[in-house]
Amino acid sequence: MDPASTCFPSGLYTGLVTLKGSGNTQIVPVLIDVPGPGVLQTGSSSLYSSAVGAGGANPSQVLVKISTPVTGLAVSTHTHTGGAWLRAVLASSSSVSVTFDAAGLAEGVYTGVVTLTSDVPGMTQIPLALQVIRGSGPRLTANPSAVNISTVAGQSIDGAAFSLDAGIMYYQFVPPPVQFVTSTSDGGNWLTVKTDDASNFTVTLDATNLAPGVYHGTISAPSQILTIPVTATVYAPNPPVGARPRSDPSSTQRQPPSTQSRLERSSRSMDSTSARKPPPD
Question: Which residues are bridge partners to 201 per DSSP?
């Protein structure tokens, strides 16, 4: 859809796309903001958040930055469904704090808009959507489902990454903070997980005190009943450039004699035979 080609006036337009599958129906909110002249420039053109839990745990606040220097900044909110679940206040002269209150909301998708005005003619509207998920929310899966990581003995490396996915039915689901527990088959502390953001994580292999070999461990998220197997391969360091491999001293005793040695022994044997022959009559 091209708002310019249909001569849409400036403003906010909303709609819903319904996806129906075998036993499942998903409603996707569509929000189109057609800006007018003299609008404020912000760091967020749209917002999406999710509330999860039996009690409708509220999402974290969102801070919207105003990149255009203005005076007389004011903010207001409007929701299309669900009542007064959306709030926005000025956090500073160049930012707005947006919060959500999911208490009392049934499971579903709710849409609204944050409107910014100032001494500059015109206004800026930021469309947003709130997804409310009751219960514990969708069960997350790891991508990939298993982690393989490798390094050289004596080194530490951030060598693998994985993400958490809630599936296509929750295409924009923002998972709550996940606490991971790591364990290793040898009881060592060579396996750790770093959080990149709410859905992406990095696996660290610390082989500082590990000998070359293959090690196994797991990364678990008890709240999600999720376990990710980890296989770590530690390689031996490369030998210094120009170093000669040490030979086994005993191996020289088992080496076959050289061709020259065999010829010399054969010659000595012939001379000895000739010396023992009796003289002719």
Answer: 162, 195
